[in-house]
């Protein structure tokens, strides 16, 4: 068989195209499939029914004007309070995890593993039943105090690991320099290490704030008065009473109003930190 009758490896590769060309063809195929799926959804959907179920005009107006501002405010209060509790407790747990005292490390480890392994819903249910176990028990600023405590305990377990990683990411030379200036271990941790650690972990902290915002939707399990409703409970009750999903759609959009700017801030912070490195 002559050499001209057998395609060479380079000829076959040339026929297939370069890796960049093959990647471009695959990407184009993916775009075409996505466009076909979207077009099919647009053509097959009953848009009149979709608008009636998800965007009913009269129910949109009722949802926005009836109690949405109060539910939105309550969601922010629950989130900020829980984040503060979680941040303070998480910092203490992170320092305990790094302590030279074995008992502190064991306590912090058990706490972190327990609350990371238990669903937040169970923690809320447990806090809701505390008055049954301890008659006469009152939590200050209830229901806000109850939510801050329950959600703060859960978030502290996750924040502790984030803060610990940030502390360990601070160069040891910074600590040695602080100690050479005569600072005590506590002063060097408070004035040198923690400020740098929090700058490092600012994007993960913002992500945790977003997660707390969404977890605040579990507040309904402890039983709330109408004045204490958060977005999910408010939208759910209106949807149930009207047999329509429009209030839940509005509630979801309100969550996006909180989380999307924070997600954008996380991306900017990560890009800024990448440029700094």
TrEMBL record:
InterPro entries: AA_ABC_transptr_permease_3TM, ArtM/GltK/GlnP/TcyL/YhdX-like, MetI-like, MetI-like_sf. It is found in: Cell membrane. Residues 72-266 form the ABC transmembrane type-1 domain. The chain crosses the membrane at residues 28-47, 76-96, 117-137, 248-266. Pfam families: BPD_transp_1. It is a multi-pass membrane protein. Keywords: Cell membrane, Membrane, Transmembrane, Transmembrane helix, Transport. Its main location: membrane. Belongs to the binding-protein-dependent transport system permease family. PANTHER family: GLUTAMATE_ASPARTATE IMPORT PERMEASE PROTEIN GLTK (PTHR30614:SF1), MEMBRANE COMPONENT OF AMINO ACID ABC TRANSPORTER (PTHR30614). This is Amino acid ABC transporter permease. It comes from Mobilicoccus caccae.
